[in-house]
Amino acid sequence: MSLQNYLSSLAGRRVAVVGAGISNRPLIRLLADAGAAVTVHDRADAAALGDFYGECAAKGVRFRLGGGYLDDLDAELIFRTPGMHPFQPALRAAAARGAVVTSEMEVFFSLCPCRVFAVTGSDGKTTTTTLIAELLREAGVTVWLGGNIGRPLLADVDSIRPEDAAVLELSSFQLHSMTCSPSVAVITNISPNHLDVHPDYQDYIDAKKQVYINQKPDSRLVLNLDNDVTAACAAEAVGDVRWFSRQKPVDNGVFLREDGVICAAEDGAVTELMPASELQIPGNHNIENMMAACAAVRGFVPAEAMRAVGRRFTGVRHRLEKIRVLRGVTYINDSIASSPNRTIAGLACFPEKVILIAGGKDKGISYDDLGPAVCAHVRKLFLTGMTAGVIRAAVEKAPEYRPGCPEIIDVDGFAEAIQAASAAAEEGDVVLLSPASTSFDRFKNFEERGDTFRRVVEALT
Predict the structure, then answer these.
(1) Which of 141, 282, 291, 324 has its CA 20 to 30 A from that of 30?
(2) Nearest Cα to Cα of residue 373 among 338, 332, 339, 341
(3) What is the pTM of this model?
(4) Cα–chain-centroid distance for residue 409?
């Protein structure tokens, strides 16, 4: 079915869109232009929606805004925002009344005419997704990048050709209720995450599994052999399983050989790709991201293209991004690190002990493993935000902790924490923003937090 045929089928039907953020706005415009009776439900008020409110109101779109925005959710078809759990009570009640609850991404899957590569996991999703897109482009493929990165792709469906590739980053919330799966699915790793929204860890794991549960026999599933949870997923795979591993060789997939060379394997036959030391992105976790991406595109992209991308790709913003060097001090933005595991991986990239800025909003997960990593890799720790006390406690109870090693300083303001870290830095130091927490105590997302870090650092004199 084409996009236009799908939209025509919605003319005159009562359709609700929950969330008027950037990802849903193209969808709202499409639905309104198709003649659907659209109601937008959003926590924000009309002023916060700005010109978009007036534009949609002029097309006859109704709004349910503010504290009771989910009241009267009585549409036939409901599109939920990507960040909302499908088990939210108002959505469950609507489904019980007979409403169809879906999302822009689910509709895109059902209409997309080309091969879909989709990446999920607890860490490394954006870098792996971006690498897959870069690898395919290097091989001459037209790539449509979307999901949590890029832009919403539903409006582009009729422009996508069968020979193109759609490359998507998918969160647990997007996957949770999906009934379709991609041609090539990648799970980078699974560890406790978003437990402030998911009812428990198993629910989070089950959501991630949706990326492959509905695959067909001719599909591919790329799994991390070094992660117990993802390795166990192979038993449920419908299609071809490809592994990536930094710790052991594999017969089918991509692995890091003992001599530090990234190798691809096909039925036991090994092809050298490149030394891991030639990658431009630092850290063991980025070696894993590159291996996952290569395993995903193996057979679609030649080895020469993999080498070319590996040697030039310098990373994604807010992911161990070098901002500047001032008076011999290097400032690194790792705002994407919204979990302890991500911060632990970031700290391991630096041979020297760093000055760390951490803290933000709690996700309901344990910080116990962060304490020893901080003791091993941090000289001074500046804490700010809601999780400052939790992180301090994790460090101070670590067996390796000694009073003053590392020195721990609490600072109320985010900008003030950056300035204090800068004042404490000496030539040769690295000042690293790696919060180990979400940004939602102060910022709308990790990008805004990282951009604020950049502005403050660039203003230092």
Answers:
(1) 141
(2) 341
(3) 0.80
(4) 30
